[in-house]
Amino acid sequence: MRCAFAPALLVAALASGASHAQTLYEGTAGPSPIVLELDARSEEPTGRYFYRRTRFDSDLSGERQGETFTLQSRLTQDKLVLKRQGQQLTGTLTTSKGRALPVALRRATPPPASNGAPGDLDGYARMQLVGLTLLPGATERIGTRTVRWFREPMSGTRLFRIEGGYAPAALRKINTALAETQWRHVQNWFDCPAYGGGAGVEVDDAGKPYLADRFVSYAWQSAWSCSGAAHPDFGTTGITYDARTGDPLKLEDLLRFGDSPPPAEDSNAWYSYRGDHFAPGLVALLTRYHPEEMADPGKDTEEDACNYADPDVWDFPAWYLSAKGLFVSAYFTRVNRACDAPDWAVIPWEALNGPALRQPQ
């Protein structure tokens, strides 16, 4: 991933036969309620589990002999020996300190998504979020409109809802999308445990939104160091909606280069367009408005100099809108990540040319 925060533990679920690749279990390890998911389709099963008290993901991997699974978590160093009998798993969990706990698990039926959570979350994620609530908090006046901030207490994840000032249908669509985004960040928080325990997400903050007659836009700053990841990382995500329709907007809706409409997103032609046309055009546009900052540092400068004249750092920028215009975030390789997202990289409104800027018919 380049800029958006989405730490992932690539895990599958347990199969009880060739026709069922995923199986989800719930029960106890000693006195502690847990939820466990495994993929047992091979002789080297993998999976994940969480204690309901903390909800943090823990990886599992190991070996299988018949209906017996010997598993270990790299994160917690817990070791599990489980035997499958029909719809149940029983066995022992041995902690890193050598404490042996009896395990009793049964097939689980995950609850439906609720409280505005996305409907596409898998069963494991839905069980991870069950019982959590987004609590309304303080209101904030932004221009002529008011937002209310909602907070999930366990993760501390916070995001606003808009309380008025737009057409009802568009407002409902935007607020629904905001709730789904907040729940995804809550899930990301539980999916990113730290190496030493606790949360690996260090920063996960939504900024004050830009609320205009045509657009709703905000930035989300994140920094994380997840167990199992190669190194800590950070990034900026921008999210923008058409305030007239409530639909999310893409960068090409606001800025495009060339005589033809951009190719379909994620197509081979689109990737070529971003590298061959969009990035060089964006460099030229930024150079027009920020000539000093965009000056090529030259070959004689230090290796870690920020070369914003290089189109490669602008082909897939994070972006969002503000009163000044369109902010675009450069992205550098790891050795130069301090150069990311310079705060001056704003294209003024008068230079934007996308179809979302046209007056409605």
Describe the structure.
The protein is of the alpha+beta class. The N terminus is likely disordered. Helix content is 14%, strand content 32%. The longest helix has 23 residues. The chain starts with 22 loop residues before the first strand and ends in a 13-residue tail after the last strand.
Strand/helix succession: EEEEEEEEHEEEHEEEEHEEE
Which quaternary structure do these chains form? single chain
Radius of gyration: 24 Å
Coarse shape: globular
Low-confidence stretches: 1-20
Give me the number of helical elements.
3
Task: Report the strand count.
Answer: 18
Physical arrangement of strands within the biggest beta sheet: 1-2-3-4-5-6-7-8
Tell me, rounded to a whole number, the average pLDDT: 90
**What share of residues are in beta strands?**
25-35%
- Level of helix content? 10-25%
Biggest beta-sheet profile: 8 strands, antiparallel, barrel
Q: Separation of termini?
A: 38 Å
Structural class: alpha+beta
Features:
single chain, 361 residues, 8-stranded antiparallel barrel, 3 helices, globular, alpha+beta, 14% helix
